[in-house]
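Subject: Predicted fold for Putative serine carboxypeptidase, 81 residues

User T.R. writes:
Posting the sequence so we have a shared reference for the thread.
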Amino acid sequence: TNGDQRTATDAYHFLVNWFERFPQYKFRDFYLAGDSYAGHYVPQLSQLIYRKNKVIQNPFINFKGFMVGNAVTDDYNDLVG
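User M.O. replies:
I've generated the structure tokens; pasting them so everyone works from the same file.
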């Protein structure tokens, strides 16, 4: 897989490893946020975290939500004025 989905997968693996390395943060609320091009990869990473958390009993990531500001979504919606 290439592109934004690969970025989401790589970021997910980073987060899982980070929470294993720093378990004191594991149970804190976790939010994702970004702007501009994050309109592509933040929702994909959020969806991946949500889906992974559903299939394991003790989620690695205490995911609560995400937000994007001034997000790039697609050419049509971004350029309509």
